[in-house]
Amino acid sequence: MGSTHRKKFLTRRRTVVGGLGAGLLVAGALTTTSLMSTASAAEWPTPSGDRKVSETQEISGVVDGKMTRYIGEGDLGGGDQGEGKDPIFELADGATLKNVVLGSPAADGIHCMGSCTLENVWWEDVGEDAASFKGGEGSTYEVMGGGARKADDKVLQFNGGGTLKVSGFAVEDFGKLVRSCGNCSEQTDRHVELKDIEVKAPGKALVGVNENYGDTARLSGIRILGDEDRKIEPCVRYQGNDSGDEPEETGKGPDGKTCLYKEGDISYE
């Protein structure tokens, strides 16, 4: 399901985070967390502590959360999946956010306004979306490690241009892992790469892309748990639009042009 993203935002309260401040620490060693295992499901981390925030945290440079759990309150305290919420974090172009847990409620998660890196970021209960990527053409977004669960609809919403790379990620109880916006007012080609992903049912689809805009989705090392009937679609193709209408589904599965993967790229356990 594509979502219209011509949102009307409320006046935002923001906290700028760059260097030390707002309970986050710059740099520091990556917290060691078991992301994937060939024998069992991903291990979810135990947060080092909780921090409640009522305004969007603006991130620039490299920021290390030291596995703090962030919980929205006030204007960020809604737990439903309605459109138009502000994010817990907003990342400037080139920013990196690492070692963070988003608890519940998490509002609209994380917004990347340009190229960004999310490293070892975990969403315990996805609100509207876990993360939205909004940079221009040529932007590169990397999601490395981490995981998300309890997403009624999308986990990663791809609204901008460029390439979204997701690796070493765990997802469970979700709608779609990645969706290229099906009806944004400004459309472009978008490219998705999913590598070494652990998927735990229930779920609907790993990726949805718009074939009419030249989107591509490359999948490899996908491991699906608990989906005996294979209901989770690896890749779904759509006819996107810029009018705000619901996009039409046009096909599923590998086609050598838009959905790029082979049978051996996906395993079921």
From TrEMBL:
GO terms for molecular function: lyase activity. Its cofactor is Ca(2+). Its main location: secreted. It is found in: Secreted. The keyword Nucleotide-binding does not apply. InterPro entries: Pectate_lyase_PlyH/PlyE-like, Pectin_lyas_fold, Pectin_lyase_fold/virulence. The keyword Transmembrane helix does not apply. Its EC number is 4.2.2.2. Keywords: Calcium, Lyase, Secreted, Signal. It comes from the Bacteria. It catalyses: Eliminative cleavage of (1->4)-alpha-D-galacturonan to give oligosaccharides with 4-deoxy-alpha-D-galact-4-enuronosyl groups at their non-reducing ends. Residues 249-258 have a biased composition (Basic and acidic residues). Residues 236-258 are annotated as: Disordered. Catalyzes the depolymerization of both polygalacturonate and pectins of methyl esterification degree from 22 to 89%, with an endo mode of action. In contrast to the majority of pectate lyases, displays high activity on highly methylated pectins. Belongs to the polysaccharide lyase 3 family. PANTHER family: PECTATE LYASE F-RELATED (PTHR33407). This is Pectate lyase.
